[in-house]
Each structure stands twice: as structure tokens, then as C-alpha cells.
Design brief:
This protein is an all-alpha fold and 175 residues long. It is built from five helices and no strands. It is found in: Cell membrane; Membrane.
Length: 175
């Protein structure tokens, strides 16, 4: 088992080395994005239903659910539930949008490395230019893959949040 882990770690280190230092930045942003998305999935699936049940119980235990004052209380509870639901979603969407930009930064730094090799050794040494080209393409690919995974899962998370809020709204009848 330890040998397999060491082989995996060596493969990851080799991949990161071919992509340059910018690839580590992409990995850090991707890690943060996924930590935040997993926290939101946990909140939506396990914490929010309990909180929503508490709000529904409070509403059902109210004697007055028809007055103007009761409607404002209902709106305040819905607004608070929506705010709690959408916490950290702006950060997630920002990280998703930043991933391709960091990848492009890797493209620029990789091309600078290629031009540096060309300036020192000329254009005849393709092997030396290959390292810079790899540094240019790997972060771009990694940034795009990170962004695509973030777009897919944050969209699913958004949809799940909207459904949960609509169910809460439907569970708080007003007349």
C-alpha cells in the first residue's frame, strides 16, 4: 500500500514539475474551491433541513399567520434562510472564474521560458523549448479542468439550494 502511495505521489510531483510553479497555485485554488463546495453540500443536505424544520415548527406554532406583521416575520425568516443558504457561494463562483485566469498566467510564464531558451540557444534546440511549452500548456489545461468541475458542481449546488428554499417557502403557508 505504501509503495502505491509513493508511486502516486511521484506521478503527481512529476506532473506538477512539468507544469511549473503556477500549477501549484491552480491546485491550491482548486483545493479551496472544493473544500467550500463540500461544506455547502454538507450544509444543504444535513444542516439546512434541520434549520428549515425549526422555522416551519415556529411558523406552525404561531397563532397569527395572516396579519401584515406575520407576513413580515415570514419574509424575514425566508430572507435569513436564503442568506444562510448562499453563504460562501460568491467565493466559490469567484474561485471558479479565477481558475482559467491562473491557467493563462501559466501560459504566459511558460512562453517566457520558451523565449528565454530561444534567446540563449536559438530555435534549433527543440528539446530545451519543450519544457517551456509544457509549462505553457499544463497550467492552462489544469485551470480549465478545475473551472469546468467547479461550474458543474456549483450549478448543481445552486439548483439544490433553490429547491430547498422553495420547499421551505411552500411549507410556510400564508393566507
Amino acid at each position: 500500500m505504501m509503495l502505491i502511495l509513493m508511486d502516486v505521489w511521484d506521478s503527481v510531483r512529476g506532473f506538477m514539475a512539468t507544469g511549473g510553479d503556477i500549477l501549484w497555485l491552480v491546485a491550491g485554488v482548486l483545493f479551496l474551491m472544493w473544500v467550500l463546495m463540500l461544506e455547502r453540500f454538507w450544509y444543504v443536505n444535513w444542516v439546512a433541513p434541520k434549520e428549515h424544520k425549526g422555522i416551519i415548527d415556529l411558523w406552525n406554532n404561531r397563532e397569527d399567520s395572516t396579519s401584515w406583521y406575520a407576513h413580515r416575520i415570514r419574509e424575514a425568516w425566508m430572507s435569513q434562510a436564503k442568506q444562510d443558504m448562499n453563504a460562501r457561494m460568491l467565493m466559490i463562483k469567484t474561485l471558479v472564474a479565477i481558475c482559467p485566469m491562473i491557467g493563462l498566467l501559466g501560459t504566459v510564464t511558460g512562453m517566457i521560458a520558451v523565449f528565454d531558451v530561444m534567446a540563449v540557444h536559438g530555435t534549433s534546440n527543440a528539446r530545451m523549448m519543450a519544457a517551456g511549452i509544457s509549462m505553457a500548456t499544463m497550467p492552462t489545461m489544469a485551470g480549465m479542468v478545475a473551472a469546468l468541475s467547479g461550474v458543474f458542481f456549483s450549478t448543481r449546488l445552486d439548483a439544490k439550494m433553490k429547491i430547498s428554499l422553495e420547499k421551505l417557502k411552500d411549507s410556510l403557508p400564508h393566507h
